[in-house]
Design a protein that fits this description.
Helix 6 crosses helix 7 and helix 8 runs antiparallel to helix 9. Helices cover about 35% and strands about 25% of the residues. It is α/β, with parallel strands linked by helices. The strands form 3 sheets. The protein has a 10-stranded mixed β-sheet with strand order 8-7-9-6-10-11-12-13-14-15, with helices on both faces. A 6-stranded mixed β-sheet has the order 16-17-21-18-19-20, sandwiched between helices. Strands 3-2-1-4-5 form a 5-stranded parallel β-sheet, with helices on both faces. It has 3 domains: about 90 residues, Rossmann fold (3-Layer(aba) Sandwich); about 200 residues, Mur-like, catalytic domain (UDP-N-acetylmuramoyl-L-alanine:D-glutamate ligase); about 140 residues, Alpha-Beta Complex (Protein-Tyrosine Phosphatase, Chain A).
Length: about 475
């Protein structure tokens, strides 16, 4: 039986309750019986899902939304200090709890798996949640995206396992004490919080150091940053069990072969000198490797490899991770959350493998001024993998504009790399533009972490007209 409600979480108020991370914690608390309330900037299916669980969700931020009997106010790093509800919490002396601390409190008393890395966290966490559920282990989970099957990003389970996506962006993953931790890759990102790779490594080392005694770190044997992290961790934490996975000949869980089969992949791994083959129901080498990481983590928890491999085949995807939005006029429209050059390249290569002779048209929306400033050239180079791209203005999210940093940085780099790329400053023009470009058999990929995802249905409508 899973633990109940932490005392400080009996009547929580979430500022930005509709966010991927915040809504998951709110859902679990509501399912455990807490009196959950919160606010968000706009209506959404997530807000409706929370209301269906009994939560009170206000639209817009105002001091009056905060009840004076709230046991705490939960915030993320995206909430600004002048938010009226946060200001009101200070005036009423209501404790303010960071999202990561709230999640850590929910994981207390359970065997937990924390999934970290610059890319692939949501997919790998989701694969584990689906597989463990398929094996009737009834896990709790909190994920940064909605599972395609259950249609939710979080649930309270009655089993003794908790699977959580661990966010490195603001170092909040250092709050967890997992039994098993996964590190998929280590790259420089989140430039507002990390100034160098050394800072990134130090942060991931701290995360690894929080693994409970007798626990396991599962880490990539292929990606250079993960390999360096493994070297550092083995030197600093010699008692920690480290299990590596990947295509490298040195990997403990070694990938023997990845065979693309349209929008799925067949993966063969070598475990203890024996071959094990299973299917991953999403395309692309990187997703196959995510599944192998999940397999290694499950084995570390004592789950039989054959059972887990079969259960992983039941995973059918996460919203926004190469999610098929529909087909019209012979054109498939697919949505991708990729916003870092490595992610962009991986998803574009995956779609290239699935598309065979089809043209690949991309609508890309850069995410954050800081990321574009640091990685705009690499983003543009990634777009050279597409047959043609439309590039939107930067989606600012939590950031203020940076002088001189615009989508032109990406467009110039893409053009220099030989890409066919066009700037589109008015997002509303995209559906008509794509409908005029696309031909039967083409694939259209909407890509980015912002509201570019909203364009998929509108593109399909224009293609149908």
């Amino acid at each position: 039986m899973a633990p109940g409600i932490p005392a400080a979480m009996e009547r929580p108020h979430f500022i930005g309750i509709g966010g991927a991370g915040m809504s998951g914690i709110a859902k679990i608390l509501a399912q455990r019986g807490a009196k959950v309330a919160g606010s968000d900037a706009k209506e959404s299916p997530t807000a409706e899902a929370l209301r269906a669980l009994g939560a009170t969700v206000h639209i817009g931020h105002a001091a009056g939304h905060l009840a004076d009997d709230a046991s705490c106010v939960v915030v993320s790093s995206a909430i600004r200090a002048d938010n009226p509800e946060l200001v009101c919490a200070g005036e009423l002396s209501i404790p303010v709890v960071h999202r990561s601390d709230a999640l850590a409190s929910l994981m207390g008393g359970l065997r937990s798996i924390a999934v970290a890395g610059t890319h692939g966290k949501t997919t790998t966490t989701s694969m584990l949640a689906v597989a463990l559920s398929e094996l009737d282990l009834d896990p709790s989970y909190a994920i940064g995206g909605d599972l395609a099957g259950p249609g939710t990003n979080a649930t309270h389970g009655e089993g003794d396992l908790f699977v959580a996506e661990a966010d490195e962006s603001d170092r909040s993953f250092q709050k967890y004490d997992p039994d098993v931790a996964i590190v998929l890759n280590v790259e420089l990102d989140h430039h507002a919080n990390y100034a160098s790779m050394d800072e990134i490594y130090e942060s991931f080392e701290t995360f690894a150091g929080k693994i409970v005694p007798g626990g396991t770190l599962v880490v990539s044997a292929d990606q250079s940053g993960a390999v360096e992290l493994t070297r550092r961790v083995r030197a600093a934490l010699p008692a920690l069990t480290v299990v590596t996975y990947g295509e490298s000949g040195t990997a403990d869980v070694r990938v023997h072969k990845i065979t693309p089969r349209g929008l799925t992949s067949e993966v063969t791994v070598i475990l203890g000198g024996k071959f094990l083959t299973f299917t991953v129901s999403v395309p692309g080498r990187h997703y196959a490797l995510n599944a192998v990481a999940a397999l290694a983590a499950g084995i570390a928890l004592g789950i039989p490899a054959h059972n887990l491999a079969s259960a992983l085949g039941k995973y059918t995807g996460v919203k926004r991770r190469l999610q098929l939005k529909g087909e019209a006029a012979g054109v498939q429209v697919i949505d991708s959350y990729a916003h870092h050059p490595t992610e962009m390249t991986a998803d574009l290569e995956a779609m290239r493998g699935a598309a065979t002779d089809a043209r690949l048209l991309v609508v890309f929306q850069p995410h954050l001024f800081s990321r574009t400033q640091e990685l705009g050239t690499e983003m543009g180079q990634a777009l050279a993998l597409a047959d043609a791209s439309l590039v939107l203005d930067i989606y600012p999210a939590r950031e203020d504009p940076v002088p001189g940093v615009t989508s032109a940085l990406i467009i110039d780099a893409a053009t220099a790399a030989g890409a066919d790329v066009t700037a589109v400053h008015d997002k509303d023009r995209v559906p008509e533009a794509i409908a005029g470009m696309a031909k039967p058999g083409d694939l259209v990929l909407t890509m980015g972490a912002g509201d570019v995802t909203d364009l998929g249905p509108r593109i399909l409508d224009h293609l149908s007209s």
